[in-house]
Amino acid sequence: MTDQLLQALPVSTLVLGACGGAGATTTTLGLANTAAARGGAVVAVDAAPAGGDVAERGADAVLSVSGLEQLVAAGPVADDVFDGYCSRTSAGTRILNRIGNQTASEREFHTLTGSLGARGVSAVHDLGHRLRAAYLAPLLATPSPIVLVVPCRADAFNRLRSALQSIGDTLGEPGLARTVVTVSNQDATGWQVDVDLLREYLGGQVWGIETIPYDEHLGMGIVIDHSKLGPDTRAAYERVCAAASAVAEGRPERV
After folding, report:
1. What is the rounded radius of gyration, in angstroms, for the C-alpha atoms of the chain?
2. Side-chain-side CA neighbours of residue 39 (13 Å)
3. Residues in Cβ contact with 165 at an 8 Å cutoff, skipping those fewer than 6 apart
4. Can you tell me whether residue 18 is helix, strand or coil?
5. What are the φ and ψ backbone dihedral angles of 154, each rounded to 5 degrees?
6. Contact (Cβ atoms closer than 8 angstroms) between residue 7 and residue 245
7. Which residues 6+ apart lie within 8 Å of 251 measured at CB?
8. Distance of CA 216 to CAs 106, 134, 151, Å?
9. H-helix or E-strand containing 16?
10. How far apart are CA 124 and CA 202, in angstroms?
11. How many helices (H) and strands (E) does the chain have?
12. Long-range CB contacts (within 8 A, 24+) of 165-174
């Protein structure tokens, strides 16, 4: 493993699905668990407007009955109290899930961003498949890497244009320049679309393209245990982590 792959995740990484069911949640967990497993302090944040299933999919160690809404309402809290609001994975990732009793707000994410920054942790935000919501403004105010996840299907590749346009309309060319398109294969029979064609099409428009292979453990739909992922899957998440670090550091070259 290279030194580049051992670098910590950026302070904030945004994971966006090109469409519903793209694999944004599993990618969020994959990146966070990869960094946590090598000693990083990481929180996976449910940043979907009404709450997603990041805790249900990833909390194989502790599933908290509390969530992001309660933490923000509590105001400044000690580290042990903060941990009590979090679910946890066996790899060491803390998860802040939305309970879903209220819609996400900009105020919440201003407060949360400050709380995470004060703790010096890396945050991987699962945005679902919407980028333009007003409550995301605190997350979009800094030049965070964007991991745009697209399933390896022809119809999803066609819908990728809309997702890229959303990034461009919201953040301009600088936003596209820090976007790592990540192709997730969800078909056990193999890669159904030639990813090299996508590389040719997007050349010069985004930072780069990575791939995540089909993984039987992910395909089962059960709670994810990072240690049970295949070696090729774990290596793929390492590459995406390294790409996010390179984007955050302003390095144009591929890792």
Report:
1. 17
2. 2
3. none
4. coil
5. -60, -40
6. yes
7. none
8. 38, 37, 16
9. strand 12-17
10. 25
11. 10, 8
12. 166/131, 166/132, 167/16, 167/131, 169/132, 170/131, 170/132, 170/140, 171/140, 174/143
As a whole number of angstroms, the distance between CA 144 and CA 125 comes to: 10
Is residue 240 within 8 A of residue 147, CB to CB? The reply is yes
Please, where are the H alpha helices in the chain? 24-37, 54-58, 68-74, 79-85, 106-119, 137-140, 154-177, 195-202, 216-219, 231-248
Sign of CA pseudo-dihedral 162, 208, 15, 176: negative
Q: What is the pLDDT along the chain (255 residues), one digit of tens a residue?
A: 444 445 578 899 999 999 989 999 999 999 999 999 999 999 999 999 888 999 999 999 999 999 899 999 998 899 999 999 999 999 999 999 998 888 899 999 999 999 999 999 999 999 998 898 899 999 999 999 999 999 999 999 999 999 999 999 999 999 999 999 999 999 999 999 999 999 999 988 999 999 999 999 999 999 999 999 999 999 999 999 999 999 999 987 553
Token readout for 177 is: 């320049």
| Cβ 21 vs Cβ 43: under 8 Å | no
Please tell me whether the overall predicted TM-score, pTM, comes out greater than 0.90 for this model.
yes
Tokens 């942790």 label which residue?
121
Q: Edge-to-edge, what's the strand order for the sheet holding 146-151?
A: 87-88, 94-96, 42-46, 122-126, 12-17, 146-151, 179-184, 208-212
Take residue 40 and report the two structure tokens written for it.
């990083």
Q: CA-to-CA distance for 133 and 90, rounded, in angstroms?
A: 32
